[in-house]
Design brief:
Elements: H1 10-18, H2 22-30, E1 38-45, E2 50-57, H3 68-79, H4 87-90, E3 97-100, H5 107-116, E4 119-124, H6 129-138, H7 140-145, E5 149-154, H8 160-167, E6 174-178, H9 184-197, E7 203-208, H10 213-226, E8 227-234, E9 246-252
Parallel strand pairs: 3-4, 3-6, 4-5, 6-7
Antiparallel strand pairs: 1-2, 7-9, 8-9
Pfam families: Methyltransf_16
Protein name: Protein-lysine methyltransferase METTL21E
GO molecular function: methyltransferase activity
Length: about 250
């Protein structure tokens, strides 16, 4: 992913997010363990002294890689969850029900399930689902030992049927996402999907690394039409980047 504020080569980003060749898709469906250039990353969750393992498959595109915003959000869930959770969620007696949008590798959602003992639904594009399922199963023991549960579903932003299918399985207490603002054409579908799930007391907590001034400004301008946008946390600038990861809470306007 580009590490500047320019909007150069956006078509590459869109094609990488949305397409694999038919041969790659078929191979992944038949054998999700056979993808090339696999990398396993371990993440220590300090508050529960447990480790989760995430498989990256960088050769398959952006959705199969780990990005800074995901790691920042996991760190907050681990070391300062009260910053992200409202008082009502912190005091909830039953397991939290969390939806992750654009899960990618599933790091955030899997960590949330283990750290919070939550019921988490990971979602992404159809071609990303097999690797998500792989990572969910890879960490099923550490998640279940903490009372959590992870499921995986297809959810294409802006697709009403996909949204309806996800809605039918669970009523969510919290929606999360990290590095989900990539391309201007995806902003409207993303916000449309957020509007479906982030209603009433259910907020959308989003970790985001600003990369493109124009694109980011467009997202937040459109988001503020229907949501109250709060900044919950800011990391210091990353090396070679102009900014650090920021975490936002979007709450539907009443």
């Amino acid at each position: 992913m580009a590490s500047s504020d320019s909007d150069e080569n956006p078509d590459f980003l869109l094609s990488t997010l949305h397409s694999d060749s038919e041969e790659e898709q078929q191979e992944q469906k038949q054998n999700p363990n056979s993808a090339l250039k696999e990398l396993d990353h371990t993440h220590l969750l300090h508050s529960i002294n447990a480790t989760i393992t995430i498989r990256e498959v960088r050769s398959r595109g952006l959705s199969f890689q780990l990005w800074p915003a995901a790691s920042s959000l996991v760190s907050l869930l681990d070391l300062n969850p009260s910053l992200l959770l409202s008082p009502s969620l912190q005091s909830k007696q039953t397991p939290l029900r969390i939806l992750e949008l654009g899960s990618g590798t599933g790091l955030v959602g899997i960590a949330a399930a283990a750290l919070l003992g939550a019921r988490v639904t990971l979602t992404d594009l159809p071609n990303v689902v097999p690797n998500l399922q792989f990572n969910a199963e890879l960490n099923s023991l550490v998640v279940s030992l903490r009372g959590g549960f992870v499921s995986v579903q297809q959810l294409r932003w802006g697709d009403e049927q996909d949204a309806a299918d996800v809605t039918s399985t669970e009523k969510f207490d919290l929606v999360v996402g990290s590095d989900v603002v990539y391309y201007e054409e995806l902003i409207e579908p993303l916000l449309k999907t957020v509007e479906v799930f982030a209603k009433g007391e259910t907020a959308f907590v989003m970790a985001h690394l600003r990369r493109w001034k124009k694109r980011d400004a467009t997202f937040f301008r459109k988001a503020r039409k229907n949501f109250i946008v709060e900044v919950l946390h800011k990391d210091p600038p990353l090396p070679e980047w102009r900014s650090g990861v920021a975490v936002y809470r979007l709450t539907a306007k009443k």
